[in-house]
Amino acid sequence: MICNIAAAQIEAVENDAVVSRYTAVVGKPDRPSPEIQSKIIEINFNPYWTVPVSIVRRDLIPKMQAEPDYTSKNRIHIFDPHGRELPAQQINWYSEEAASYRFKQDAGDLNSLGSVRINFPNSHEVYMHDTPFKNLFGEDFRFHSAGCVRVQNVRELVNWLLAATRG
Fold first, then answer.
1. pTM of the complete model
2. Looking at the chain, which terminus has fewer C-beta neighbours within 10 angstroms, N or C?
């Protein structure tokens, strides 16, 4: 499989021939998707999402400062370092401490990963996944993610990936 980041496209390749193509949404210009050579090791259906610290700092905290009910509206739970869940009102969103919590979004319609996450080892904390924002695939400029690759018709790609997998 080949992901052409510049073209925001994924190609499924068998025996050196492209068998299908998928439209993708890749990293924003200021947060580009990294070039990675890796092997897919896991496919998660209906995944939860643990928000990476970089996204907590750049996106989530500013959203909470502007919209204090953002985490509850988006079914994101907040956990302290001991694993205890905290209410959003207990956190000072203007402090450095706000980035020290773990943020976990429930699986479901609002989940930023959509219905599927495709995992492969890498040091960038990125993966391929579905998205609830299907409208982005129809845009000419498809550079909207924080580094991960969102895949249109991701279940078709998963079927191709798993076709030769037993069990």
1. 0.88
2. C
